[in-house]
Amino acid sequence: MSIRVRLTLWYVSLLAVILIAFSVAFYTVLQYSLTSELDRSLQERAQQVSLGIQAFNTPYDVMRFGYIRLPELNVFSTRSIYIQIIDEDGKVLRRSPNLMGRDLPVDELVMNGLKTKQPVFETVTVGTVEMRLYSAPLMASDTVLGMVQIGNPIGEIRATLQRVLLFLISGTIIALVLAMLGGVWLVYLSLRPIERITETANQIVSAEDLKQRLPVPPTDDELARLSRTINHMLERLDNFFQAQVRLSADVSHELRTPLTIIRGNVDILRRMGDSPTTREEALNAVESALNRMARLVSDLLLLSQADAGMTLKMQPLDLDGVILDVFQQAHALRNGVELKLGHADPARVYGDADRLKQLLINLMENAIKHTPTGGSVTLSVYRGEDHVRISVADTGAGISPEHLPHIFDRFYRVKGQRVRGSGLGLAIAKWIAEAHHGTLTAESEPGLGSTFTLTLPLLKEQSAAGE
Ligand code: ADP
Predict the structure, then answer these.
(1) Residue 150 in contact with residue 119, Cβ under 8 Å?
(2) Secondary structure of residue 132 in the 3-state scheme
(3) Are 436 and 351 in contact (CB under 8 A)?
């Protein structure tokens, strides 16, 4: 069932419940007040008749002569009010002329009322006329002389109630039909923007054009928010898609160079493999190309595992050991650059020793690569209150401001440099830093050198002890 139908049905059902409850309450109150109004007027009329009779007779007369004189009842009756007087045995003594010879019923209820001296209300049918009948005891002192019976047809009340009932039923039906039509229209109006969003989203999907965006309605409502969310999602999808395209282009480009070198050298070997020097040179070139490819493939593998949510082997760790290992490994690469161990605070962190070493080796390797012979690279550790900063500072070529924001991007390399790399080293380093809930930043002064700073949270026990 569509939202449109569901909303309309809910709306109409709710309205139906409200209207029916209102109609029932209204009808009940009306019926009650009309009936009680009639009953009150019957009581009043009975009282008038009783007073009239009492004006005709004194209790003394009644006691002495044993009978009562009755007034002419047409004085009290009107066209629609019937009056009858009965004695204590229920025998009819007098009735108003408009009854035209018929009796108002003297039934068991009335006889009971005579006995108990209590007035009686009932609804009876005389001939074909339905009426409300009130029988009130006629008293002389404490003695019941008989009863005054007042009848009033209730046809008019019944007709009024019927008319009201008809009006309520038809009114409810008309209101529900109108509400249904109005509801369908309103729901259509309010859901139309959603349909437009769906249509545009469909177009984007079928055109496979992730550059398109949904129009955002000017209102700041749920629909505007939905459009903005979908647009945001499209943008991320687009970026992701483009990154994939770029990645495959970069990877194939990176692999092409070593493959060309290998092919060229295999050619040389085939043609001039007899000369030991040529063979040595060609094999060295092939080996270095293979190393480059192996490094690239393992870097790519690591990054794709990182993307897939690889978890690190985290454990409490003393940084001294890590720093010492990195420093020793860097010595093998130093290539005429002086390596210095600067400030060296002891620090304990929660981390993966191998990955942290890999990160720092990447930084050291870059620093050495970009520092000319005679320059220096300094590795330092500073412990703060709840963080530790590890910096790798070189006195090399530096990085110009236009490149600095991008050096952590995958495959980003500053063009025209003497040394070549894959452009993945810093991307991996940044990922390792973030996986340790840390940060990796770079500052550089072109011509003077660069400083890369890794900040890691200290292990809780140490940061607490240090405070
Ligand atoms: P690569 O493997 O090519 O070195 P990286 O991601 O490690 O790739 O570095 C990206 C770029 O950042 C490099 O091409 C280089 O130009 C620049 N870079 C990194 N470290 C330094 C440094 N210490 N001094 C100068 N430039 C650097």
Answers:
(1) no
(2) strand
(3) yes
Residues 146, 143: Cα–Cα separation, whole Å: 9
Give Cβ neighbours of residue 209 (< 8 Å, ≥ 6 apart).
Answer: none
Question: Do residues 140 and 59 make contact, with C-beta atoms less than 8 angstroms apart?
Answer: yes
Q: What is the pLDDT of residues 452-465, one digit of tens each?
A: 999 999 987 755 55
Domains in the chain, please, with CATH? Answer: 3-159 (3.30.450.20), 222-307 (1.10.287.130), 315-466 (3.30.565.10)
User: For the segment 233-276, what is each residue's pLDDT rounded down to a tens digit?
Assistant: 989 988 888 888 888 888 888 889 899 999 999 999 998 878 88
Residue to probe by mutation, ligand 1, list 250, 407, 411, 450, most atoms within 8 Å of CB: 407
Three-state DSSP class for residue 194 = helix
Residue with the smallest CA separation from ligand 1 atom 16 is: 414
Q: Which atom of ligand 1 is nearest to the CA of 362?
A: 7
Q: Are strands 348-351 and 449-457 parallel, antiparallel or unpaired?
A: unpaired
| Distance from the Cα of residue 325 to its chain's centroid | 53
**Ligand 1 geometric centre to CA of 451 (Å):** 12
Alpha helices by DSSP H, 338-448? 353-369, 425-435
Q: Is the CB of 410 under 6 A from ligand 1?
A: no
Helices vs. strands in the chain: H and E counts, helices first: 10, 12
Total-model pTM: 0.57
| Residue located nearest, by CA, to atom 26 of ligand 1 | 399
The pair of three-digit structure tokens given for residue 171, joined into one six-digit string: 């009114």
